[in-house]
Amino acid sequence: MPQLILRQARVEDTRSLSDVVIDGGRVRAVGDASGQDADEVIDCAGRVVLPGFVEPHLHLDKALLDGVRSNPDGTLAGAIAVTGELKSAFTHEDVLARARRVLEAAVLNGTTVIRAHPDVDPIAGLLGVEVLLRLRAEYAGMVDLQIVAFPQEGILRSPGTEKLLIAALAAGADVVGGCTYNEATLDDCRRHVELVLDLAAQHGVPADLHADFADDASDPRYALAEFIAGQTARRGLGGRVALGHMTSLGGREPA
Q1: Which end of the chain is less packed: N or C, by CB atoms within 10 Å?
Q2: Is this structure's pTM higher than 0.90?
């Protein structure tokens, strides 16, 4: 007898309704299961059944900060300024409470995988990683929480960050992050990429880099996708490197 049957569900935008048979945590059949019974049966009454949602980019340690101090002018620059001021006063209890609220909202709305990017730098230390390690264990039965050790303040311009990234990976972070535009010079931005990808190769983890922050493709800091791709291939990391904040692609030629 299967664990669960979802009866009269709408699947993949079909006109007819289907039964979904689930056993051992997997979908075993989609169709007519009217003659079958299960440990649990849920009547979906024609509602749509979807796979779990995936959230690939979430800053849980900095979520809901508007409730702590509002953005003074509603701009991105204003949000960055407020976040930078508040981060130095973060506590485990504060980050835990805000992150838990977001996690619970995500789970209740059908999210089953989250990749979160807590800041790792001399300002925040490993606080965000430590909180998310606790939440990863606490919510393990409801959501797969991947933790990215994220150098928001840069690496070269923020001495000590590289050692903190290594410590975060040793503590259990799943992914090494990058913030490639947040260095003083273009050469340092490229070096940032190399450091992050070296850590990914050395520690056997994926990499996830925020690669730009504007749609101005004339700024070479925001046009490093090809360089990152080349460095990824050189290290044999194909398929294990993700880029976020790719807004500058909208300002470049289609090719």
Answers
A1: C
A2: no
